[in-house]
Amino acid sequence: MDKLVIQGGRPLLGDIKTSGAKNAALPILAATLLSSETHYFENLPALTDVKTMEKLLCQLGAKINQEGTLHAVQVKQIDLCEAPYDLVKTMRASILVLGPLLAKYGEARVSLPGGCAIGARPVNLHLDALKAMGAEIGIAHGMIYAKARRLKGARIVFDVPTVTGTENVMMAATIADGKTEIHNAACEPEVVDLACFLNHCGARITGFGSPQMTIEGTPSLPNGGTYCVMPDRIEAGTLMLAAAVTGGEVMIRQYRGGHLASLIETLREMGVKVQEEKGGVRVRGGPVRPVNVTTAPYPGFPTDIQAQIMTLMSLSGGISTVTETIFENRFNHVAELNRMGADIHLEGNQAIIRGVLALSGAKVMASDLRASASLVLAGLVAQGTTEISRIYHLDRGYERLEEKLVALGASIRRVSSPL
Ligand code: EPZ
User: Fold this and answer.
1) CA 374 to chain CA mean position, Å
2) In whole numbers, what is the pLDDT of the chain averaged over residues?
3) What is the pLDDT of residue 89?
4) Which DSSP helix (H) or strand (E) runs through 127?
5) What is the pLDDT of residue 279?
């Protein structure tokens, strides 16, 4: 398993371009199951999770070819309606094939995703919504068995906003019989990107990006063609924090204005200089003040940036807090940050971070995708050398992160290790 070796203390300087968004690419790839046309995708990120989704689609019967930077995807027919455990256990987002398979082919067998490092990750809201649209759903032997002669439009009210739950219903509803309304829909930009792709294919979705979404079912999605996946705002936020924590100055290109308003507001409150410019956002680091953050569904503070901002808070001149309201176990990075000299303690779903003068390099272990990003940020600013093992977690959601950081002046290298 590879590890990263980082020499800390070098301010990041320069320009960097983010890759395509993982959490838009995954539902958009799943949505190709709804259509028989060929889709050409630009800006698909080269991530483990994207490769896993493409592998799952090919197992179902899709034909996928890479033509230069374009990925051509066509699902003329499927050979199989099953997303097996050995794939789903590596990527929970495999649940996103459930809605499209059910709507287009009338049946689907998807392994229950099960939990992951950050929480139980239930899918009850997905299943209840599809049942309301007329699906028969049973669970046995760790598998979801779903059947539906033809899905019908329905009025869906989510108890809590669920990103992939909203996406599963949106996809299923595009070719269901009649109108579907989703209330308390997720408003994340990645949900909006999926809606834009589906409408590009011929769907009739309105209200996306707001809690009330309406989908008028159509018999089919007749359009293929080229679609460019949105830039990854979570990667952009991680790079903003890398600039801030190292006291450097970085221009992050491809950042779409408004996608991280909550993070930018928080950074400014901490004293970080953030300037949105044409085509991106410029961040300049320096001494930071403490701040209190509570994660929330979009447009609130993103839970996917919580671990990363905690690294910056650990070097602020006072006491900050992070309250995690989305997932029940998303503080796996805290113990490792403390081993690097941070002073963080946990009280239930709240982390209390007392700023310290410096972090010190150490051997640490990644535990989940965003926790590993917070350890990279810590290594960039720590005194001495940091070695991060199990960085396969990082490769799930960041494309060539160490190369991007080296281009900005960081001393970071990937070392393959047999262990
Ligand atoms: C998506 O996960 C993202 N993944 C996550 O990003 C992100 O952290 C999360 O949304 C929240 O923004 C993808 O888009 C592939 P949810 P998702 O359903 O859809 C509860 C990353 O780091 N819930 O919005 O699985 C759930 O337990 C990943 O890139 C139910 O109770 O999250 C949680 O408390 C991590 N029942 C809350 O809703 C359900 O059926 C929000 O979860 C579904 C969800």
Assistant:
1) 15
2) 96
3) 87
4) helix 124-132
5) 87
Nearest alpha-carbon partner for 201 in 104, 311, 291, 343? 104
Is 228 an active-site residue? no
Q: Is the pLDDT of residue 300 over 90?
A: yes
Give me the pLDDT at residue 419, please: 59
Q: In 10 A of CB 402, how many CB atoms?
A: 19
Cβ–ligand 1 distance for 169 under 6 Å, the answer no
Q: In whole angstroms, what is the distance from residue 244 CA to residue 312 CA?
A: 7
- In whole angstroms, how large is the CA radius of gyration of the chain? 21
CA distances from 232 to 20, 21, 28, 83, 174 (A): 5, 4, 14, 26, 25
Q: How far apart are the first and last CA of the chain?
A: 6
Tell me the pLDDT tens digit for each residue of 388-397.
Answer: 999 999 999 9
- Beta strands 350-354 and 343-347 are antiparallel
Mutate to test the pocket of ligand 1, among 23, 305, 398 (most ligand atoms within 8 A of CB): 23
193-220 in b/e form (b: 16+ CB < 10 A) is: bbbbbbbbbbbebeebbeeebbbebeee
Statement: the pTM of the whole predicted model exceeds 0.90 = yes
Closest ligand 1 atom to 186 CA: 24
| Length of the chain counted residue by residue | 419
pLDDT single digits (tens) 35-70: 999 999 999 999 999 999 999 999 999 999 998 889
Q: Which of 48, 160, 191, 323 has most ligand 1 atoms within 8 Å of CB, for mutation?
A: 160
